[in-house]
Amino acid sequence: MKDAKSCKTIEEVRQEIDRIDREVMELLARRQDYVCEIIRFKKDEESIVAQGRQDQLYQQRREWAEELRLSPEMIEEVYKTMVRHNIQKELELHKQTKNS
């Protein structure tokens, strides 16, 4: 991995951005594996939505964003989108296990 300041061309910068994006996506795939497994511990739709956990998660991610000098608003938006999709996935899995 190259330090951002050591890149000499726009192509080098883009190449590093692409590499990092791939790493981010690999981490998101790992996270998704856990999302699919957590359903084993959730008994109903209320526990899937888990509004209290969502609120806690968003607040903590905002704090982490500030520590990393990222926009807390952007990070919260990213996580809200991700959590919304995860809840849909969990609801689908819950319905499948309920019907089997």
UniProtKB/TrEMBL annotation:
Chorismate mutase domain residues: 4-94
EC number(s) reported in the record: 5.4.99.5
Signal peptide range: none
Record keywords: Isomerase, Lyase, Pyruvate
One Pfam family recorded for the sequence: CM_2
A molecular-function term among this protein's GO annotations: chorismate mutase activity
InterPro entries documented for this protein: Chorismate_II_sf, Chorismate_mutase-related, CM_dom_sf, CM_II_prokaryot
PROSITE patterns in UniProt: CHORISMATE_MUT_2
Any one GO BP annotation for this protein: chorismate metabolic process
Principal EC category: isomerase
Source lineage: Bacteria, Pseudomonadati, Bacteroidota, Bacteroidia, Marinilabiliales
Family annotation (Gene3D superfamilies): Chorismate mutase
Designated name of the protein: chorismate mutase
